[in-house]
């Protein structure tokens, strides 16, 4: 249909109705296509011709109003709940009477397992590229956390397993539990909120996120981008114990430590009190022995010094005696005794040794000394 | 010197344990003089008592955080 403007001189002006019609026509030329989103605000009344809902983008919350003929909607028997992820087939249209833009839905498909797997793989690659799962981001767990935070479903076996392991290993453990939804469309946001509230509790040094096994769909919230980012950005280390060994929700990759079971998580976050005390006692023993060794070493060194001190005077006397003996030997070497031994004699008058015959008179008495004694003689 | 570890701020159990390990290594190396060995031993004893006190001071406690999600519908179990 031709949309004709009203002409006011050079100006072409459209009526509201004509404008809406024009835009609606233009939109109608767009092809039908698939749109992915979460179903919210679903309104279905038996008296209405159409069913209304809003498709929401889980990543940023962008909204798109949608409508579908009620008969067609009912025929699908989808039984959709709020927040459920779907693929919607339709085309954009303008509700001319109100100028409302919306998606005219021809068919809805529940987001299937294959879609989930493909979406998960894409998200995993994207987050990995951002470095969220990098090993160098992992923080060590505290050896003795002041307070342990626990995010879990209420009355869950996972909760019981974590708590009983914590208290068995370390009876003085202080645990703050944040109960939350752990499955369903609201779970991801609720778990993020629980993490945030635990971080606000003073002295929380580590947080355990625990959930028992479940179906692939049950565990989907633990791969939600918001939750994965919240875990990676958590100010304290996070231990993830979600599902069974073979399940690897993305939160496991973002957590600082992955525990295979809730019980294993309990063992990771607190030390064994008995071992801790025994270790402390061993340290104390080593401390005492270490100090003792230093004392003994010093005492031995001291004893050595005392011995040397005590021996010093004796040594001095001995040294003197040796010197004396040496002197005696030299003295002996110099005395005439040795000369006498060889047969020489010393001849004396009364007052001097005879060195020349000049001053001797005949008949004068002399004393002759030989090696073995002396005897008298007279000058002829 | 007080019984608290040299590093300021909590958590300090770890730093106390680490310091104690360092002291043991130094003592057991046999390189410390008598004066140093005695000082190390005293410091080590302090750290030991500090760690023990930290363990004694902790009283087992399990608290439930008030739920921030809608209280009207209880969370499903898991």
Structural account:
With 380 residues, chain A is of the alpha/beta class. Chain A contains 10 helices and 15 strands. Chain A has 4 domains: 106 residues, Beta Barrel (OB fold (Dihydrolipoamide Acetyltransferase, E2P)), CATH 2.40.50.140; 153 residues, Rossmann fold (3-Layer(aba) Sandwich), CATH 3.40.50; 61 residues; 42 residues, no CATH class. The longest helix of chain A is centred in the last third of the chain and has 62 residues. Chain B is mostly helical and 78 residues long. Chain B is elongated, with a radius of gyration of 21 Å. The longest helix of chain B is centred in the middle third of the chain and has 24 residues. In chain B, helix 1 runs antiparallel to helix 2. Chains A and B meet through helix 4, strand 9, helix 5 and helix 9 of A and helix 1, helix 2 and strand 1 of B. Strand 9 of chain A pairs parallel with strand 1 of chain B, so a sheet runs across the interface.
Give the SSE layout.
The complex is a heterodimer of chains A (380) and B (78).
Chain A: E1 6-8, E2 11-13, H1 16-28, E3 33-43, E4 50-56, E5 63-69, H2 70-76, E6 85-95, E7 100-110, H3 113-129, E8 147-152, H4 157-169, E9 174-179, H5 187-199, E10 204-211, H6 225-232, E11 238-242, H7 250-254, E12 257-258, H8 262-269, H9 273-334, H10 337-341, E13 346-348, E14 365-370, E15 373-378
Parallel strand pairs in A: 5-7, 8-9, 8-10, 10-11, 11-12
Antiparallel strand pairs in A: 1-2, 3-4, 3-6, 4-5, 6-7, 13-14, 14-15
Chain B: H1 13-29, H2 34-57, E1 61-64
Helix pairs in contact in B: 1-2
